[in-house]
Amino acid sequence: MKIGPMSPEWLRVASVVLLSVLLPATISPAEALASGNKNFQFFAPPAEGTLPDGPLGRLIRKGELIFIHTNLYAKKYVGNDLTCESCHLDRGIKPYSAPLWGAFGTYPRYREKNHKVNTLEERIQGCFRFSLNGTPPPVDSETMKAIIAYAYWVSRGAPIGLYLKGQGIVRLPKPDRTPSIRRGKVLFEARCALCHGLDGQGTQADLGQVAFPPVWGPHSYNKGAGFSNVRELAGFLRMNMPLSKGKSLSDQQAWDVAAYVDSHTRPQDPRKSSPATGQ
Ligand code: HEC
Ligand code: HEC
Question: Which portions of the sequence form the region Disordered (predicted)?
């Protein structure tokens, strides 16, 4: 078959060539997802306090309250002194503290941790079980519905299926020097103890609400939590701690202070059926 000028084949070839010249190189969502591109785009979540009227607005507001005061509004599912906001800062919208808008459009997702595709609900159940050392609320519970409604609301307008800039926790490069608990202790006492206490136990405020959360010990996250991985914790600290002075630690300092925090006792990983070792 001849491909003459103006034949359908010719037009098709010409339009493809023309389009590839005219359009800037773009990454399709599937490609971005496959390549794990984490610098794809920034996202600005909607302003605080803008809620729809009616039942949906009330559910979103409930989810926000659960997120910020988990131990008041979802008490029966929480087993320690932390709230969702203890780690997902600024009511879950701060970049690099695993913001909700970075998660909402990237589930369902396969996770090595439990060897299956997780829905967003299942991912959140994981945080209840490990990070809050508690009992996961059922998928169809009011608590879970409210959290999902809130996550949806702060993700309004974000693309589906893309890893956005600022999503998740920064993955730090391997440190130059082996992380040192000794150097970490010096740093912790100088830069962290003011709020979290020399003993790492934080400070209680009125009504049992925690002003500064404990970073180790029986009321902190357990050994199955993401932060029990030193690299994950170091990535969080690098970008977020000391509070409001994120990015002031160097990579090495973040590794060192993470190693120090991690060297203390905390509740056992609930997946381990063996009794607590007491360490
Ligand atoms: C002790 C810290 C901590 C607490 C408390 C915590 N989380 Fe997480 N959460 C994490 C870490 C760490 C990750 C993994 C982030 C990553 O690397 O993608 C995570 C992941 C998530 C994700 C998926 C994020 C993503 O980008 O894939 C969601 C959603 C989430 N948490 C919701 C919650 C909710 C809701 C609560 C409260 C019920 C909560 N978390 C409590 C530390 C915590
Ligand atoms: C000015 C007070 C302040 C300082 C200084 C500070 N933090 Fe925090 N930190 C907080 C607060 C408050 C939260 C919880 C955020 C929230 O609830 O909004 C937090 C959360 C955390 C968390 C996650 C929750 C938990 O309890 O495990 C870790 C880990 C942490 N800080 C470690 C550190 C380390 C390490 C340093 C020193 C490098 C440090 N912080 C310095 C106030 C502080």
Answer: 260-279
Ligand 1 atom closest to the CA of 82, numbered from 1? 5
Predicted pLDDT of residue 28? 42
**DSSP assigned state of 45:** P
What is the percent of the chain with per-residue pLDDT over 90, rounded to a whole number?
76
Are 270 and 128 in contact by the 8 Å Cβ rule? The answer is no
CA separation for the pair 154, 64 (Å, rounded) = 10
pLDDT for 73: 97
CA atoms within 13 A on the CB side of 63: 24
The architecture CATH gives domain 54-154: Orthogonal Bundle (1.10)
3-state helix, strand, coil in the chain (%, to 5): 45, 5, 50
Q: Is 27's pLDDT higher than 60?
A: no
Atom 25 of ligand 1: nearest residue by CA position: 103
Residues 6+ apart with CB under 8 A from 196: 188, 202, 212, 213, 214, 215
Task: Identify the residue with better confidence: 211 or 93.
Answer: 93
The one-letter amino acid at 119:
T
Which residue stretches of 130-229 are H helix?
A: 142-154, 181-191, 193-196
Is residue 182 over pLDDT 60?
A: yes
CATH of 181-262, one of 1.10.760.10, 3.90.1150.10, 1.25.40.20, 3.40.50.720: 1.10.760.10
Q: Quote the ligand 1 centre to 8 CA distance (angstroms).
A: 53
Radius of gyration (Cα) for the chain, nearest Å? 23
pTM over 0.85: yes
